[in-house]
Predict the 3D structure of the following.
Amino acid sequence: MSSTPHPPARPAITHAREVGSWLLDMDGVLVREEHLVEGAERFIGALVAREAPFLVLTNNSIYTRRDLAARLRWSGLEVPEERIWTSALATASFLHAQRPGGSAFVIGEVGLTTALHEIGYILTDRDPDYVVIGETRSYNFERLTRAVRLVSGGARFIATNPDATGPSVDGPLPATGAIAALVSKATGRTPYFVGKPNPLMIRSALRELQAHSETTAMVGDRMDTDVVAGLEAGLHTVLVLSGVSDAAAADRFPYRPSRVVESVATLADELEGRD
């Protein structure tokens, strides 16, 4: 009896110069509390010099690409706005693919509303196709009540990302996942989360870059979002220890990144030929 041969194993990527395209988490990888992570400027500079395709990813849906590029510039990092990909953009891409020209009731900021306007969505509180919740600093009871009633009435329930809290200089802030949980508890309906760790966000970024998963690396500082999303999307994954996860914490997960490095400074050294 003949057996079907297994396809040859994909060779492991062991050096930054072997990567064709890059997806980079923002917080903890390039910046930390609005300060540059060691090597971030050299790493972005090396990618630009090599003309390597890359996107900076964030689950934050508050800001537009232009806003985030300006915030990074203020921190000392030049990243073109077209090199930024947010959960708001990924959500808009998903909704456009699912129901082109639809409508949504939105709880969120300009990053999310702009992304939805740009795909031709109508923002309304009258019989919308979707209720979409993103991160915001101006939740109010009236709009939350409207969201609950619309979801209970049959509107499809979407959230940009599942993060329960977000960082600030004064401590954690309630974020998208926490507010989505309130609506979920009140309606008995669970939202579909688009952002990391859903690999859908990674795949939407790959489409934006026109890149292939087998030659793309996902660089992140969190095992439970960046690494697992990259892994499930079939990417080479690099955990940096400059943010949330340390080496000991990484060992406790049932999956492992392809590589663990101290920071993007290591990757910059490799791209610059200093290794």
